[in-house]
């Protein structure tokens, strides 16, 4: 099976030339560079939670860690030419043990950390690690981490909530679905997602024709008192809405959104937390050489990739690329290179990904996934930006409240 599936002939030629150039760089640098031993850690914070609505959504024990394993293999492939070695320790802890785990790893000499956690714990661990560490957020989409709560030692490979919402809004504009019926949950995380969609609608000239809150009443979602009750409530809850083209769901708590597509009062497309969802990656994505990524991941782990796996892989590939190109293990040097104009990384999304120097967010395309295939990829055609079309999604430099990168 071709590893270039989804590439045009011109893209394939360009990709081969860039690979040859990269190989030449490595060979030329090999004589001058010193061998480096790069140690990093992936800390995954596990939270108590209800069983998911579907057993297909049960989280594997190696969630995130599997992607890290693949990244270590990829980094070692390049590193062997320079004599560099890459090793990553993986740690899963409850929230109350996260700081102790980071302290232990720091005492062992590790200064590079990939974090899979919520916004509060990601920020807590970044502050604990201190300015001499490089911390990469591979889990939280929270906008605050990129804005008023940003940290100079914290980079982000997980897409921000604004990027995800803007990806949906651009597709809505392209389809001509200009009037939204926004349905959000009652939990704080749901409210944050809803606000991102409100801002996206304003940004791209869409109208929120009506907005409603679906209250989370608790209970087991996989029992008759849970999912059956939700399914019974939804059609009545959705009736007599203002005229709209599409339903946009904001349900970070996974309470009601999966039931929306077939429990509406008036039939409409559904986007957001259900229906057509914005994701960083998914297991059926094959374009732009992603088939070989999927094949290697499945051979290594015996399962399909999840977003957490891809984001952990991406974080450690950032480390591998910066170490190789900067020929250094100095944290300040690696951070400066990652944020500089010379950094770029192939990510199986059709174009290079780079960091925004004003808040440490990785620019990247967002896949729009319907549960089986990639329906579309944002940014959509026609959305232009003076720097990069990728900057049409998420907070642009004039809009940012982050000052840590000044």
Task: Give the tags.
406 residues, alpha/beta, five-stranded parallel beta sheet, four-stranded parallel beta sheet, 36% helix, globular, disordered N terminus
What does this structure look like?
This protein is α/β, with parallel strands linked by helices and 406 residues long. It has 10 helices and 12 strands. It has helices at 9-30, 65-82, 98-107, 119-129, 161-175, 188-203, 224-237, 290-301, 307-326, 331-339; strands at residues 37-45, 85-93, 112-116, 134-137, 154-156, 179-185, 207-214, 246-250, 270-272, 277-279, 366-369, 374-378. A 5-stranded parallel β-sheet has the order 2-1-3-4-5, sandwiched between helices. A 4-stranded parallel β-sheet has the order 7-6-8-9, covered by helices on one side. The radius of gyration is 21 Å and the shape is globular. The model is unreliable at 1-7 (pLDDT under 50).
Order of strands across the main sheet: 2-1-3-4-5
Alpha carbon gap, first and last residue: 46 Å
Which oligomeric form is depicted?
Answer: single chain
Helix count equals 10
Structural class of the helix and strand makeup? alpha/beta
Uncertain stretches of 5 or more adjacent residues: 1-7
Number of strands: 12
Radius of gyration: 21 Å
Characterize the biggest β-sheet.
5 strands, parallel
The helix content, as a percent range, equals 25-40%
């Amino acid at each position: 099976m071709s590893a270039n599936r989804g590439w045009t002939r011109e893209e394939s030629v360009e990709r081969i030339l860039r690979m040859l150039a990269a190989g030449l760089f490595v060979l030329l640098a090999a004589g001058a560079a010193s061998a480096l031993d790069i140690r990093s850690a992936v800390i995954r914070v596990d939270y108590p939670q209800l069983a998911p609505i579907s057993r297909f959504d049960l989280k594997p024990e190696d969630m995130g860690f599997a992607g890290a394993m693949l990244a270590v293999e990829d980094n070692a492939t390049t590193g062997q030419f320079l004599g560099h070695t890459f090793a990553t320790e993986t740690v899963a802890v409850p929230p109350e043990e996260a700081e102790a785990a980071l302290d232990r790893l720091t005492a062992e000499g590790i200064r590079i950390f990939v974090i899979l956690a919520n916004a509060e714990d990601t920020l807590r661990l970044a502050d604990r690690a201190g300015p001499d560490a490089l911390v990469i957020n591979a889990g939280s989409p929270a906008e605050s981490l990129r804005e008023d709560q940003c940290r100079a030692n914290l980079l982000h490979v997980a897409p921000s909530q604004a990027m995800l919402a803007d990806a949906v809004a651009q597709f809505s504009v392209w389809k001509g679905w200009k009037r939204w019926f926004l349905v959000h949950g009652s939990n704080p995380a749901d409210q944050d997602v809803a606000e991102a969609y409100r801002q996206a609608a304003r940004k791209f000239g869409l109208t929120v024709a009506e907005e409603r809150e679906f209250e989370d009443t608790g209970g087991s979602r996989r029992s008759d008192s849970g999912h059956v009750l939700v399914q019974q409530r939804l059609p009545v809850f959705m009736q007599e809405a203002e005229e709209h083209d599409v339903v946009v769901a904001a349900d970070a708590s996974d309470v009601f959104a999966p039931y929306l597509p077939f429990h509406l009062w008036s039939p409409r497309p559904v986007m957001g937390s259900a229906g057509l969802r914005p994701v960083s990656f998914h297991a059926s994505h094959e374009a732009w050489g992603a088939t070989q990524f999927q094949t290697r991941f499945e051979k290594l782990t015996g399962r399909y990739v999840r977003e957490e796996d891809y984001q952990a892989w991406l974080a450690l590939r950032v480390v591998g690329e910066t170490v190789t190109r900067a020929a250094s293990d100095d944290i300040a040097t690696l951070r400066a290179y990652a944020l500089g104009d010379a950094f770029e990384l192939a990510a199986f999304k059709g174009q290079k990904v780079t960091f925004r120097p004003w808040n440490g967010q990785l620019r990247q395309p967002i896949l729009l996934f319907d549960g089986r295939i990639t329906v579309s990829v944002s940014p959509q055609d026609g959305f232009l930006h003076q720097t990069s079309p990728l900057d049409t999604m998420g907070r642009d430099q004039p809009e940012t409240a982050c000052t840590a990168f000044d």
